[in-house]
Design goal:
Strand order of the largest sheet: 1-3-4-11-6-9
Number of strands: 11
Helix content: 40-55%
Oligomer: single chain
Strand content: 15-25%
């Protein structure tokens, strides 16, 4: 990671002032108050892997409040933060929920009024994610902002381990592989939030949460050619009949939804310059199609042209 700012070498009298100026320059719309009388220290490291921007932030005890949108500039529009606690403790208050995060926990923050406090020695990793990516599977972020996804969940531990290791090895990965890994990490976050939601959601909404968990599982396992409705039902812990009923309640069929997501993902990859060098067959297998011929038939039925023609058309449009 690249250090964007550190109070090392800054006169103690000016360190907190410089810290706030740096956050302002980053577009953060925050009011901050110190919570102790000692010397202030803070550090911000940044890295972008694929389309995922991350900030590692450490500081002494602070109270940070955003009374409007958390960010002022358009670059953050449509984005949310998954904040992974690395050290120390923090509290989070947004959308009527208040929670505590300890090392290994993470929490989601959207661009609405929010209050966060941190202990001395606190450090966190803020991962910037498209709101649409979460809401397509989990519903409105208002359902899970300020909800601690705890390290007692195996999926949350996997999120923590995955992003730490991704940052450590990212320089060894070619850009297209790094982008795919960052996207996979986003899917892990979505799946972990879905698991956390299932723990305490009111019973009348349980069916909706099961569908959300099922969709998150599909997103995380889209390349598995064996993924089918029975396997999906077993993965989310309900009978196949019950899962079919829940999907039908949303006006969907399980198999149709799985194939739809495979086709949509394949179409997106066909237009992605980062994977333009990959053969169409490789993209098809990566989206869960067992053969290129099967992929071509389904793709043409959906989009009205062959995968190769679709890719060529996107290249012509881009030029």
């Amino acid at each position: 990671m690249q250090t964007l700012f550190s109070t090392d070498g800054v006169h103690p009298r000016d360190s907190f002032k410089r810290w706030r100026e740096t956050l302002f320059d980053l577009g953060a719309n925050l009011q901050q108050q110190r919570l102790d009388d000692g010397l202030f220290s803070g550090k911000i490291d940044v890295i972008t892997i694929g389309s995922v921007a991350m900030h590692r932030v450490s500081q002494t005890a602070l109270r940070s409040e955003a009374t409007g949108e958390m960010f002022r500039d358009s670059a953050h529009e449509g984005m949310v933060l998954a904040i992974l606690q690395l050290a120390g403790a923090a509290t989070f208050d947004q959308d009527g929920r208040n929670s505590v995060q300890r090392p290994g926990d993470f929490v989601v923050s959207d661009q609405r009024p929010v209050v966060r406090t941190t202990s001395t020695g606190s450090a966190c990793l803020s991962i910037q994610l498209p709101r649409e990516r979460l809401e397509n599977v989990l519903g409105s972020t208002r359902l899970y902002t300020a909800l601690t996804v705890g390290s007692d969940l195996a999926s949350a531990t996997l999120v923590s381990t995955f992003f730490r290791e991704l940052i450590r090895v990212q320089h060894q990965l070619p850009p297209d592989a790094a982008a795919r890994m960052a996207s996979a990490g986003t899917d892990l976050i979505v799946a972990s939030i879905a698991e956390r939601l299932a723990r305490e959601i009111p019973r009348p909404l349980h069916g909706t949460v099961v569908v959300q968990r099922a969709k998150a599982y599909v997103e995380a396992n889209l390349g598995d050619t064996t993924l089918d409705p029975p396997q999906l039902a077993a993965a989310v812990g309900v009978s196949l009949r019950r899962l079919q009923e829940l999907f039908h309640g949303h006006g969907q069929h399980i198999s149709d939804w799985i194939w739809q997501r495979r086709l949509e993902t394949a179409a997106k990859r066909l237009t992605d310059p980062g994977v333009r060098h990959l053969p169409i067959g490789t993209l098809a297998y990566g989206c869960g199609f067992a053969s290129q011929a099967h992929f071509a038939r389904r793709f043409k039925a959906q989009y009205g042209m062959t995968p190769s023609a679709y890719r060529a058309a996107s290249l012509f449009t881009a030029s």
